[in-house]
Design goal:
The protein is built from 5 helices and 12 strands. By secondary structure, it is of the alpha+beta class. The radius of gyration is 24 Å and the shape is elongated.
Length: 239
């Protein structure tokens, strides 16, 4: 990589942008100008060089002259957050808290419609392309899984997974009774003619939800799995 353009192209590819247009759309660069910079057919202003280095998180000295370490082995790909141009890793996405999960607690459906909390979390490698959301945990229904009151879980949307059930999956479940919703976290246990959504708590008040497909749960309420728990998100300062 003897030229500025070659190093710029290498940085783009290493930061996860296969095509120049992808990087330009992400960072707000003019595609034709950027391509000319990579091709070496147009001069590059110092302020633009610094912008490239900052947003790709690479060494400006390396980008300009090839001197020293490139910095490509640190920081990972980056994107702007659309709010003042701050940077965050490209393998991170911003997810909103959609529900509070607490066994035995009935809430109105629109509990988090106004100003939901949001956190940045690592993008899924297990289910790429599947929409995800966060659920805040309340109570003690999953303490045996080391998920505690005040934690958050990252969930893949169940409907987008097309209902691929497996024994032992940790899922977010909703029971509805009129306008009231109980959102809880359970472990899926499959049987020949039904499945159970089992709590993971030593608390005897938490009971399994027994579901016979097509018939709702054992009490006649409507039961729906809404998310597959992928990971635990515990904000800094907790536990």
């Amino acid at each position: 990589m003897d030229t500025f353009g070659e190093r710029l192209k290498h940085a783009r590819i290493m930061r996860g942008f296969k095509h120049a247009i992808d990087a330009c759309e992400r960072y707000g660069w003019v595609v034709s100008t950027y391509q000319q910079h990579e091709n070496g057919t147009r001069g590059v202003k110092d302020v633009t060089k610094a912008d490239y280095a900052r947003k790709y998180r690479i060494s400006l000295a390396w980008l300009i002259s090839g001197d020293g370490p490139s910095g490509l082995d640190h920081g990972g790909p980056v994107v702007t957050n659309g709010e003042g141009g701050e940077l965050r890793p490209a393998n991170v996405e911003r997810l909103h808290v959609k529900w509070i999960a607490e066994a035995g607690a009935w809430r109105e459906a629109d509990i988090y419609e106004d100003e939901p909390e949001a956190f940045s979390v690592i993008m899924s490698e297990t289910h790429p392309g599947i929409p995800r959301f966060l659920v805040k945990v309340a109570g003690d229904s999953v303490v045996d899984l080391k998920i505690f009151d005040g934690d958050y879980v990252v969930c893949a949307e169940w409907i987008a997974l097309e209902g691929r059930m497996s024994d032992g999956q940790v899922v977010v479940v909703q029971q509805t009774d009129g306008h009231r919703i109980e959102t809880t976290i359970k472990v899926l246990k499959l049987f020949k003619d039904h499945y159970e959504l089992q709590p993971r708590s030593p608390n005897p008040k938490h009971k399994p939800i027994v579901v016979h497909p097509g018939n709702g749960d054992e009490d006649g309420r409507n039961v729906e799995i809404i998310g597959l728990v992928e990971s635990l998100h515990r904000p800094i300062g907790r536990g």
